[in-house]
Fold these 4 entries.
Entry 1:
Amino acid sequence: MNFEDSLRTALQGAVKTVIVGIGNELNGDDGFGIRVAERIHQSEKSISILAHTVPENFISVIAAEKPSHVLFLDSAFLDASPGTLSLLGTEDLARIATVTHRIPLSKIIERLVGLHQCQILIIGLQPKNMDVGSGLSPEVRETADELVDLLNNIFSI
């Protein structure tokens, strides 16, 4: 199953999804999650939160929305080509490294699920360049734009 089909399947039956953009847009491709989250159309089915480098500060905000699904967007070292997306589950967090968190994403998810039971999904993106002030690489910019289109399509149905 390809990424798009996997994502569509994982979001099937989603009543309300909170999309959480994680990253630091000043550090090159680490801005991926923020770029995508800020461009998702808000609707009854989806809202976006720009958590930047402190997703732990938004646990209560996310839980208060009472989502059926939470989708975290973050750069992650996937040992893949730059711009590659991977749909990850919480069990995958032990084998991959995410980039700009003070608190591990697994701990944030654990606390969130303790407050509100929901389906957790993580979209990890393989960065190319994490240099300060470099902006998104062309590969990551293209992938981010495609993901925005895909998510807007999924949530418009």
Note: The beta strands are 17-22, 46-52, 69-77, 85-88, 97-98, 119-125.
Entry 2:
Amino acid sequence: MATLSAFFFFISQHSMLAFPLWIIAGLALGAAVGALRKNGAWLGLGAVGFILGFANIFLGSAVNAVFVHANGTYGTAVITQARETNSQLNDANIWEYDVVMKTADGRDVKTGFDTMSASLYPPRNAIEIPPAGERFVVKYIPGFEPNIAILRDESAFGKRLLVQKALEPVERAAAQVSASPDNGEFRREYREAIETFLAQHAEAAEPEAVAFYREELKRIGT
């Protein structure tokens, strides 16, 4: 498992470097199979390598996160330094992060990642990096500990982000009520949004926010 972890770590951390290696591996495999079967068409596996290498640039870190989460051991980690680079992703500068991970048996392991290579679980179309200095939950593979998956929904920073996201429909409904306080439909939508938020996030949300929205339910009535 440690060897697999090292492989997934390499292709997720160095996707551009791995790209030509995927093509070479496809060509080499195609040549070997083609020689055995005496059929040069197997060299077409080079095209498969190209496709896999291209897909890895965008999906390698997500695949790595799924692998580590499925097979790994829990630990915690802290970003010790964050550095902005001159490279860009979606018109925003890429950041590099130094990390210290504490294993389940108490050992400290130095590792790191950047904006593009961070392995975040569960995978979704959002790059959510923990704040520097704040401890977060990870999984790692014993035997190759530098390869970590950030468990955002189990970490404090991720739970805060989930709460913020869940508050968006509540705030939207509140704005409608503020625009037209006597609109019964708007008041109903606001009440339902609050009830949904409290049912799903009352334990993770700030106590002050929970208390406020419970008072809002009393205020707007049925």
Note: The CA atoms of residues 37 and 210 lie 68 Å apart.
Entry 3:
Amino acid sequence: MIELNKDFLLKFLKFGAVGLSGVFVNFGVTWFFKEVCKFNKYLSNILGFIFAATTNYLLNRWWTFESHNPQIGTEYAKYFLISVVGLGIDTLTVYLLHNKLKWNFYLSKVFAVGAAMVWNFLGNYLFTFA
């Protein structure tokens, strides 16, 4: 069972701050590969996701969860798996709310980001950095 104490809430806020930094990494890397290197837009998007997930892992390991686990490769693989599932949740939520329920795309995206963030935080809190 999850105990909603001060430590849990502080980790959640730190996780959110790290996630916000990841948005800038994602967009910056995507822009660089698409506009400067002239890569395909989907490949550029994938690279942006990978770079953001990696920097988010490092920041969350060091700052949010203060992990000292020597199994960094295993820990990163768990983190990345949680992130990929979160990407799926985000995409599915946008699809259901926008395409099926005809909500505004950006309103759908707000709910999708929220759902993915909750999944990502809980998955990493209970699985990756437990």
Note: The radius of gyration is 16 Å.
Entry 4:
Amino acid sequence: MAGDVGDLAGILESLVGRIARGELRAEDEFMARYQVTARAIAQRHCRRFEAQVDDIVQDVLTAILRKLRAGAIDNPIALPHYLQQALKNACLAFYQQQSNERREDVSALDATPAPRSDPVDLMEYQQRQRMVRALVEELPQPRDREILRRFYIHEESRDDICRALDIDEHHFRRVMSRARQRLREVVEERRGQL
């Protein structure tokens, strides 16, 4: 077993050194050696059948390759762990970015300025409010409609909603996230029909 670790360390040191010296063949070996492993790691940290897995893997391997070229990874034996951590972080960042984009989409529907005395502004405000209400009402799940109505339209606090719907405070985030996702799907469906 100790010989296996020593062999692996020697292989990795050689590979990292050759990449740092600019050997293109070593870069190809790196990609061939870690492509399948990286994909398997990314799939563990992504949703099942995530379409972006290959892009995430390619981005991470390319970023590590750049670091290897620059000599920024000085412990070759840590390369597999570094790869695993980089993929985990990239998958997490991908889903955080998606979540932020969804939040912005839903918030854009509700982010309406307070009506002013200008009749045009007031009319636009009322139209947006009607649109948000109509989209929420299209949701198939009564619980989704209720939580979004209370939160976005009636602007009730999270604590009040949790009490009214008998939802645990920690569970609220998951319920709200799923309701927002379903609302986003309705919004996307409507956009596709325009």
Note: The radius of gyration is 25 Å.
